[in-house]
Amino acid sequence: MSGGAGYQLQQFIPFSSDVYLRLLERIGETYWPWHIATLLLGVIVLLLALRHKASAGCMLLAPLWLFVGYGFFLQHYAELNWAGNYIGYAFIAEALLLLCIALSGKGLAKTAPDKRPAVVIGLALALTGLVGWPFIGLLSGNSSFQAAVFGIYADPTAIVTLGLLLIMLRGWLLWLSAIIPLLWLVVSGLTWWVLLTPQ
Q1: Distance CA 13, CA 20 (A)
Q2: Exposed (0-12), middle (13-18) or buried (19+): which is 33, by Cβ within 10 Å?
Q3: Rounded to whole angstroms, how far apart are CA atoms 64 and 85?
Q4: How far apart are CA 45 and CA 107, in angstroms?
Q5: How sure is the predictor about 8, in pLDDT bands with cuts at 50, 70 and 90?
Q6: Contact 94/87 with Cβ under 8 angstroms?
Q7: Residue 32 placed within a domain
Q8: 125 domain-assigned
Q9: Considering the entire predicted model, what is its pTM?
Q10: What is the per-residue pLDDT for 19?
């Protein structure tokens, strides 16, 4: 076959599941006990979103994206995958976008959250990333340091952020700010699928 038709998805994942899980564990060990602080910050951002204080919520969310972009991707993930640097810079770009939205006030919801489907789905996503996601690794029999926590690991950070964006933002800025979290979740889902792990 010619061109890219001969490539398989496995060729773009240059590590095994054991190596990846060890990386996640090392990240958990490196940043402990910041897990507690980032989880509390996530709860605070969710409460701010539900109380119609979206600007403050975006302002608190931005440094967490900066931290994951630098601490998770540039410092660790890039050791396994050359694409880690690019993904890290994309996460940093998301942090800057959230900061710009917070400072400009553009795209923020004008009314308090109600029971519209987008808000209900947003709340479910945020709670899944904050509370449910850390238990996935534990229920899979992994080390407690492999329990992916919002604000430290990319997956729960992207999930919680998508939920918060559905609550806090409206219009084209909602869709623009959702692109990077969605793209990462596609990449992460394909990675776990290739590695054949329970996640």
Answers
A1: 10
A2: exposed
A3: 17
A4: 17
A5: low
A6: no
A7: yes
A8: yes
A9: 0.86
A10: 80
Q: What letter does residue 110 receive in the DSSP assignment?
A: S
| 5: its two tokens | 């038709």
Q: How far is CA 88 from the centre of its chain?
A: 12
Q: What amino acid is encoded at 179 in this protein?
A: I
Contact 101, 169 (CB under 8 A): yes
- Could you give the CA distance from residue 196 to residue 63 in angstroms, rounded to a whole number? 32
If we measure between CA atoms, which residue out of 100, 95, 114, 92 comes closest to residue 55? 100
N-term to C-term CA, the chain: 33
Residue 141 has what pLDDT? 59
Q: How far apart are CA 117 and CA 94, in angstroms?
A: 25
Burial of 139 (0-12, 13-18, 19+ CB in 10 A): exposed
Is 9 contained in some domain?
A: no
Q: Say whether 135 sits in a helix, a strand or coil.
A: helix
Domain that holds residue 168: 15-195
**Number of structural domains found in the chain:** 1
- Name the pLDDT band for 112 (thresholds 50, 70, 90): low
Residues 95 and 160 sit within 8 Å (Cβ to Cβ): no
Asked whether residue 6 is domain-assigned, the answer is no
- Residue 75 neighbours by CB under 8 Å, 6+ apart: none
Rg (CA), the chain: 17
pLDDT band, residue 138 (cuts 50/70/90):
low
